């Protein structure tokens, strides 16, 4: 990184601001909020700055060089003259004083980040001075994510910190307690002003705290694009001690998990399971019983062909607390990124989600129902059995010219969307060498893809649709 982000204590610390115009005013307001004692040095000082003069701010109507800089903790060069900034920078370096030159990073050694202030919680975003507009846009997104009640949560935690430290002797226990406290109903109670109820809940949870109480978060990671993760998914990924993840969960998504969390891959591929489902269930139980907080991170949605229900059954049988976080399922994500509306009043009023893989000796699909016209059929894990799928649908009445799409790596930069007709499906898969993860979409709505395609992919768009 080009700059190390740090937070410095400036209460009653002397800071020199060189310049007295609107740019200086913005920096002065930040420094006043941090409690600094400010000296403003400039031949002329604007009225807005002069109005702030008082115990915390002193105005000196002088040029730089006419005032001794020794003893200041920071210097802010808020002039629009590079030569003056260079003079200030050289003097500050000689005196071992940190300096910021506004909009002139060449003559400074620290920068002001974009700030989200929920004191005592403060978030700083920086582009190293290279893209301040981008940093501001990121700050706006963070502002939307953090409710004002976060400030009250931080203040409550500050008041209770010593009490928790006295009750729980180890760092791990205290961290575990605070993780559970912040992920519970406390924020809603504090935000609604219910101080007595908040205090009662806090005392109860502290008294009942068990350091070996593991739990599991069954989290949907979506179809691939990290920005499709939910806020709650991110929260649980950040507080888990262990991440148990599928192979379909991308490295970009895993990078958003808590950095020091252990990562265990239970990747599954067609025809090969690195860990059978029963053993995955047992692993989740074992980790939770050892007192770990486990994030079971699954591609798509846990309860749509994700076997999340089976894992919850195992956890419930072992009396382990668990939470379920829905994710954007592949049907919704891949179809949207391929420009295919799953329903459309002119083409399809119903949607069926089916899997190309079933349990051994399982019941046959209801082919007559699946073959109905004017509906959208979305097939998960259907590449291997595409020939059977095509033959059965056509033999049960589905038009051989029904539009189809195969979406490979949906929502990711390398997404490919190949379109054609139902009778061409197996040939399309072979011709374009499509592989998992891929989703098959069958129905009249696929014909809209050529006009509604909005997601620009790395690979060229393929279309092999032929005239009937």
Automatic annotation (TrEMBL):
InterPro entries: 4pyrrol_Mease, 4pyrrol_Methylase_sf, 4pyrrole_Mease_sub1, 4pyrrole_Mease_sub2, CobA/CysG_C, NAD(P)-bd_dom_sf, Siro_Cobalamin_biosynth, Sirohaem_synt_dimer_dom_sf. It holds the Pfam family CysG_dimeriser. S-adenosyl-L-methionine binds at residues 223, 299-301, 304, 329-330, 381, 410. The active site is at 246 (proton acceptor), 268 (proton donor). GO terms for molecular function: precorrin-2 dehydrogenase activity; sirohydrochlorin ferrochelatase activity; uroporphyrin-III C-methyltransferase activity. It comes from the Bacteria. The keyword Transferase applies. Residues 1-202 are annotated as: Precorrin-2 dehydrogenase / sirohydrochlorin ferrochelatase. The keyword NAD applies. Its EC number is 2.1.1.107, 1.3.1.76, 4.99.1.4. Residues 216-425 form the Tetrapyrrole methylase domain. Keywords: Cobalamin biosynthesis, Lyase, Methyltransferase, Multifunctional enzyme, NAD, Oxidoreductase, Phosphoprotein, Porphyrin biosynthesis, S-adenosyl-L-methionine, Transferase. It catalyses: siroheme + 2 H(+) = sirohydrochlorin + Fe(2+); uroporphyrinogen III + 2 S-adenosyl-L-methionine = precorrin-2 + 2 S-adenosyl-L-homocysteine + H(+); precorrin-2 + NAD(+) = sirohydrochlorin + NADH + 2 H(+). Residues 214-468 are annotated as: Uroporphyrinogen-III C-methyltransferase. Pathway: Cofactor biosynthesis; adenosylcobalamin biosynthesis; precorrin-2 from uroporphyrinogen III: step 1/1; Porphyrin-containing compound metabolism; siroheme biosynthesis; siroheme from sirohydrochlorin: step 1/1; Porphyrin-containing compound metabolism; siroheme biosynthesis; sirohydrochlorin from precorrin-2: step 1/1; Cofactor biosynthesis; adenosylcobalamin biosynthesis; sirohydrochlorin from precorrin-2: step 1/1. NAD(+) binds at residues 22-23, 43-44. Then it catalyzes the NAD-dependent ring dehydrogenation of precorrin-2 to yield sirohydrochlorin. Finally, it catalyzes the ferrochelation of sirohydrochlorin to yield siroheme. Belongs to the precorrin methyltransferase family. This is Siroheme synthase.
């Amino acid at each position: 990184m080009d700059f190390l982000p740090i937070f410095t204590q400036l209460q009653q610390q002397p800071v020199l601001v060189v310049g007295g115009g609107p740019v200086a005013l913005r920096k002065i307001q930040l420094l006043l909020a941090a409690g600094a004692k400010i000296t403003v040095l400039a031949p002329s000082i604007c009225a807005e700055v002069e109005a702030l003069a008082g115990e915390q701010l002193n105005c000196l109507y002088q040029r730089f060089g006419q005032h001794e800089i020794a003893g200041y903790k920071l210097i802010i060069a808020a002039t629009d003259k590079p030569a003056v900034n260079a003079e200030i920078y050289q003097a500050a370096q000689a005196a071992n004083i940190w300096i910021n030159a506004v909009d002139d990073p060449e003559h400074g050694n620290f920068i002001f980040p974009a700030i989200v202030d929920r004191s005592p919680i403060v978030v700083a975003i920086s582009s190293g001075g290279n893209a301040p507009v981008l940093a501001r846009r990121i700050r706006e997104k963070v502002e939307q994510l953090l409710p004002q009640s976060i400030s009250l949560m931080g203040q409550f935690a500050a008041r209770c910190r010593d009490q928790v430290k006295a009750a729980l002797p180890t760092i791990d226990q205290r961290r575990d307690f605070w993780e559970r406290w912040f992920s519970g109903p406390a924020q809603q109670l504090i935000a609604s002003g219910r101080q007595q109820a908040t205090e009662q809940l806090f005392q109860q949870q502290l008294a009942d705290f068990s350091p070996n109480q593991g739990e599991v978060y069954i989290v949907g990671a979506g179809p691939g694009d990290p920005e499709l993760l939910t806020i709650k998914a991110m929260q649980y990924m950040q507080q888990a001690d262990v991440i148990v993840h599928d192979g379909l969960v991308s490295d970009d998504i895993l990078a958003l998990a808590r950095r020091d969390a252990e990562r265990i891959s239970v990747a599954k591929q067609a025809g090969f399971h690195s860990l059978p489902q029963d053993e995955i269930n047992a692993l989740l139980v074992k980790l939770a019983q050892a007192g770990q907080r486990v994030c079971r991170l699954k591609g798509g949605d846990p309860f749509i062909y994700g076997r999340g229900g089976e894992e919850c059954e195992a956890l419930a049988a072992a009396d382990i607390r668990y939470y379920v976080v829905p994710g954007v399922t592949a049907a919704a994500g891949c179809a949207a990124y391929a420009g295919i509306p799953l329903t459309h009043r002119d083409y399809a009023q119903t949607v069926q989600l089916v899997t190309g893989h079933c349990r051994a000796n399982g019941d046959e699909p209801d082919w007559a129902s699946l073959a109905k016209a004017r509906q959208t059929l979305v097939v998960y894990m259907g590449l291997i059995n595409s020939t059977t799928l095509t033959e059965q649908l056509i033999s049960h009445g589905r038009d051989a010219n029904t539009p189809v799409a195969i979406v490979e790596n949906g929502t990711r930069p390398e997404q490919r969307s190949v379109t054609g007709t139902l009778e061409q499906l197996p040939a399309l898969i072979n011709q374009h060498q499509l592989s998992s993860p891929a989703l098959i979409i069958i129905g009249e709505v696929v014909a809209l893809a050529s006009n509604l395609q909005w997601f620009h992919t790395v690979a060229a768009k393929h279309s092999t649709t032929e005239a009937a």
